[in-house]
Amino acid sequence: MAFYSDKLGVFRINQTHAQTGTGLTQFGRAMEQLGIQVICANTPQAKGRVERANQTLQDRLVKEMRLRGIASMAAGNAYLPEFIADFNARFAVLPRQPEDAHRPLLPQDDLARILTIQEPRVLSKNLTVQYKNAIYQIRSKRPGYVLRHAGVTVCENRQGEIAIEYKGKPLDYTVYRPAPRQAQVVSSKQLTMKLDAVSTPKPTKKRKPYIPSPDHPWRRFRIHPETAQHSSQGDISIRQE
């Protein structure tokens, strides 16, 4: 089974010189785990077919919903079967092969796990891992050295629930979130003074040119006229008085 799409960054990694990562987006990784091949359109003709279908659906569906005064998700979902039937009657094309290409979900396909944000991490020697400004301490019954520097996968679902897996099996953990930094409480007068100090530009001092003192060593040197004629050759000599 294959999924046909354009080359949007959701479907594939467009950075050709990426140094890290698996080479798959979250969408591509989910399709790979489901056994679905992602095929990106490589020709203008193929991309045009995809874009025309999307434009027709997006433009026509929005206008039909506006004409019917649909302004809620529930009303939109209730109207979709009617829209799909009308759309297929107008634009559907019979496939070359009449067989249904859909396949049943396999027993090992856990959609609740596959359709999550998955990030690889490496456990520290203390069996901790950091994810989104939080520290996760792994609780393991086995000796701690077994999991030191082990590669794990952090899975986050749509509800924000976190699961940490090692070789496909979940690990128990305790989460430690850093305490938020409390801002310093100041009075309104102090706040006004600080804002004025920041907003008021500081005056710039003009730098005075440096004038050597009368007894400065530079004043004891001068260029003699008889040696200035050699300046074109770059060999000017300086004689000390």
- Note the beta-strand portion: 15-25%
What ranges have pLDDT less than 50 throughout 5 or more consecutive residues? none
Principal-axes geometry comes out as extended
Pattern of helices and strands: EHEHHHEEEEEEHEHE
Distance between the termini: 96 Å
Helix count? 6
How much helix, percentage-wise, in residues? 25-40%
Fold blueprint:
Blueprint: E1 2-5, H1 26-33, E2 37-40, H2 44-67, H3 73-91, H4 111-114, E3 117-122, E4 128-130, E5 135-139, E6 151-156, E7 162-166, E8 169-176, H5 188-199, E9 221-222, H6 225-228, E10 239-240
Parallel strand pairs: 1-2
Antiparallel strand pairs: 3-6, 4-5, 5-8, 6-7, 7-8, 9-10
Helix pairs in contact: 2-3
Note down, in words, how this protein is organized:
A 6-stranded antiparallel β-sheet has the order 3-6-7-8-5-4, with no helix packed on it. A two-stranded parallel sheet has the order 1-2. Strands 9-10 form a two-stranded antiparallel sheet. α2 packs across α3. 29% of the residues lie in helices and 19% in strands. It contains 6 helices and 10 strands. By secondary structure, the protein is an alpha+beta fold. Among the domains are: 90 residues, no CATH class; 61 residues, no CATH class.
